[in-house]
Each structure stands twice: as C-alpha cells, then as structure tokens.
Design goal:
Blueprint: E1 11-14, H1 18-30, E2 37-40, H2 43-55, E3 64-67, H3 76-85, E4 93-98, H4 103-111, E5 116-119, H5 123-140
Parallel strand pairs: 1-2, 1-3, 3-4, 4-5
Length: 157
C-alpha cells in the first residue's frame, strides 16, 4: 500500500447560506472528521482566495473544494470555469453540493470534471451522506505527488 499524505486535507467550502455552512460543519463533527475547513461565502471571494493560493505556490491551498452553484457575485459554475482554466488550480478536486437539480447545471459541472454532484435534499441527512462520500473518496483514491505542483513556464521558441 502506498504511503498517504501526512498533512490533513484542507477543504474549501464555497457556500453563501450560513445554515448550510453550519449543517456541513455539524456533519463533519458528527462523523469525527477534523480536516481544516476554509469557508468562502461566494464564488468571487473563493476565486480571490484561490488566486492568492496559486500566487504563493500553493502554501495555503485546499486539496478539495465543496461548491454550491447558486451564489451571488459569481456562481459556482463561473468559479469552476475559472479554476479549470488556471494551470495552477485546474487539478483541484471539486464536488458540487447544491439545491439545483437542473440537468444543464449537472451537465456543465461534469463537463468541467467535477468529482461528484450532490443534492441538498434534506438538511441533516444529505450533508452527512455528502461528507461520508467525500471522506471515503479521499481515503480510497490515489493521487500523484506533489498534489499542488507549480506549473513550469513554457519555453519561448
């Protein structure tokens, strides 16, 4: 079995609803998962944070992003588009956790390589199931090292 990452996985939760943030945190606590959670209240705030992470070489970067779709200033899909277009951030593992059951939203999210698309159906159970899935995913899947590799600049021809 391969050696696992020793530093705890940092999670970026991008969620504008404070009740949903609390439900996610309660689910983490109930399942005894103590990973650090960075909370950003909308896509714009998350994008600015992720750009700072990329600029400082990934020091404070999350490994995992939990993303709502319907948010003010910048939607989750707009944020996801920006992340996938950025060479230093495109590797981030992103799960969508949203109330949107719209097929177009699902299509767009999976077209941008999300690891999963989960619906917030009922406040307690859906968050617990989502956190269990994410925790299992992280424990089972093997990732290349280093996880946040700086991108080498292209050579001029």
């Amino acid at each position: 079995m391969s050696e696992r990452q020793t530093a705890p996985v940092k999670i970026l939760l991008v969620e504008d609803d404070s009740i949903d943030v609390k439900a996610f945190q309660r689910a983490m606590g109930k399942l005894k998962i103590s990973n650090p959670i960075i909370i950003k209240r909308d896509g714009q705030e998350a994008w600015e944070f992720l750009q700072e992470c990329a600029a400082n070489g990934g020091e404070d970067a999350p490994s995992l992003v939990i993303l709502d779709i319907n948010m003010p200033r910048m939607s989750g899909l707009e944020l996801l588009t920006n992340v996938r277009a950025n060479d230093q951030l495109r590797h981030l593992i992103v799960f969508v956790l949203t109330t949107s059951n719209d097929e177009q939203d699902k299509f767009e999210a999976f077209n941008m390589n999300v690891a999963g698309y989960m619906l917030k159906s009922d406040m307690g159970n859906s968050f617990i199931r989502a956190v269990e899935l994410i925790d299992s995913y992280w424990r089972v899947v093997e990732f290349p090292e280093p996880h946040f590799a700086p991108v080498e600049p292209a050579l001029a021809e």
